[in-house]
Amino acid sequence: MVFSIVGKKQEKKFRINGKVLCMKKNVPVSVLVIVFVLFAGCLSSPVVRESAQGALHSHYEYSVGWSPGQGCYERITGYVYNAGNTSIDAVQLNLNLVNTGTGTIRDSKAIFVGPVGAGETRTYETTLDGECTQEYRVDFAFVK
Q1: How far apart are CA 73 and CA 131, in angstroms?
Q2: Torsion of CA 108, 114, 120, 123, to 10 degrees
Q3: Does residue 74 contact residue 126 with C-beta atoms inside 8 Å?
Q4: Is residue 102 helix, strand or coil?
Q5: Do 129 and 106 form a contact (C-beta atoms < 8 A)?
Q6: Which residues are registered as beta bridge partners of 61?
Q7: pLDDT value at position 12?
Q8: Residue 55 CA to chain centroid, in angstroms?
Q9: CA separation (Å) from 117 to 43, 59, 142?
Q10: Does the pTM exceed 0.70?
Q11: Number of neighbours of residue 93 by Cβ within 10 angstroms
C-alpha cells in the first residue's frame, strides 16, 4: 500500500500490476453501481388483474419499469378474448394510471383493439408514464 499527501488530506492508493489505483475516485463509481443495481427493477413485482364486461374478458398485468429516457413508468401487457358466440366490433381499451395516495389520474391511454370474433383472442402492450416517488394502480375499462 502506498500513501500520498494531497493538500492536507491523506489519500489511500493501491498498487495492482504496477498501476496505482486511487480509492477516492473509485468510491463514487461504486456508489453509483450499487444505486443502479438496487433500482434496476424498481423493486416491484407484477400485479395481475382480470376484467370482464359481458362476453369480453381481459387478463392483464402491470409492473414498474425505469429507463434513462423515459424515467419511471408502468408497463402493461395482456390479452382480450371474446367468450361469446358473436363477433364484437370496434373494441377499445381505456387504461388509467391512478395515484393510490391521491386518487388522481397521472396518465391515460386508449388502445384500439378492433373487432374480436367469437372465441378470438387479441394481445396488447403499452406503457403509462409515472413518477418514481409515487405509488400507482392501473384502472381498466372496455369501450365497445
Answers
A1: 7
A2: -40
A3: no
A4: coil
A5: yes
A6: 48, 77
A7: 53
A8: 30
A9: 39, 17, 16
A10: no
A11: 23
Q: Which of 114, 110, 80 is CA-nearest to residue 93?
A: 110
What residue ranges of the chain are covered by domains with CATH 2.60.40.1620?
47-143
Q: How are beta strands 71-82 and 56-67 bridged, if at all?
A: antiparallel
> What is the pLDDT averaged over residues 57-79?
91
* Band of pLDDT at residue 29, cut at 50, 70 and 90: low
Q: Which fold has domain 47-143?
A: Immunoglobulin-like (2.60.40)
Return the C-alpha cell found at 140: 381498466
| N-to-C CA span, the chain | 73
SS3 content of the chain, % helix, strand, coil (to 5): 10, 60, 25
Q: Which of 89, 78, 79, 144 is nearest to 117 (CA)?
A: 89
